[in-house]
Amino acid sequence: MGKKLVIIDTDCGIDDAQAIMMALVAPEVEILGITCTFGNAALDNVCQNVLRVLSVCERSEIPVFRGSAGPLVGAGNPFSDHFGGDGLGDVLQDKDPEWEKKIQKEHAVNAMIRLVSENQNQVSLVALGPLTNLALAVRLDPGFPQKLRELYIMGGNMEGKGNVTLCAEFNFAMDPESAYVVLEEYLCPTYVASWEFSCRNGLPWEFFEELINQDAPAARFMKTITSQCSAYSQTSLKNKRDVFFGPLFVSYDAYAMAACIDGGLVTESISCPVRVELQGAIGRGMMALDRTNVLNKSHSVSVLTKCDVAKFSQLLMASLRQPCTK
Ligand SMILES: [Ca+2]
Predict the structure, then answer these.
(1) 125 — phi, psi (to 5°)?
(2) Which ranges carry the Inosine/uridine-preferring nucleoside hydrolase domain (predicted)?
């Protein structure tokens, strides 16, 4: 049986690194390319972070493409320091002076369109950052979404709880117009792993300790990049999000990836049209679920609500036992 063909679009922070490692280790997945976007860090950092992850896992043959450096509209919000200024916890010193030569010459959006056109109806696109590259892809090639097998998105809200503004999740808040375009115009099967979905399926911190203390290069890498990062600090557990979700370890992007890798992982979802709010001091960037189809849209997405946490834990554990022979 053929492998599942995957393109990963990422703003490579720590949780993206985790998600990419999960895809790298999945025996049934073939990664056609990794496309980079701004988000958790500036675009140059994102590109270097992806190269690092591939290097740690000894999978540097996978092509990496440079994409959008900012949102469609406006100057963009200041970069989040959730995962440190460089996106990987600000602890890595050994910069590769040759990194730019390792990035493909082709622009990420062109690469996405080409790879999907070469493999029509076979590619699963997993979007882990702001959706700017995806919005540009449908503008350059209006038929692009129909050539996809499916789209998985980490981002948005299902309960209106925000993590960077009152009502908006980071990836959507960084480029609301792109999130809007994607959720209006990508008519392929679409699965949204929202901020609250990730938080509601979090894991105990004891699991996190076990995860990063495995005896393998990928685990040691993850232990290093999370070592100084407040997002992984158990002493900062009483931060704002825990008002809603409790003190859990949440590897956000890994949920969207896990859902793509294992169709049986998601145990409950809501099928309905959605729309991203573009106006408002409070609502801009929020995803609204249209459960009664007030908007009269023809296309519904799957908004994930529950997953098999035991299965997810196993995928996480295996992802840090790298490099390995497939
Ligand atoms: Ca991300």
Answers:
(1) -100, 125
(2) 6-313
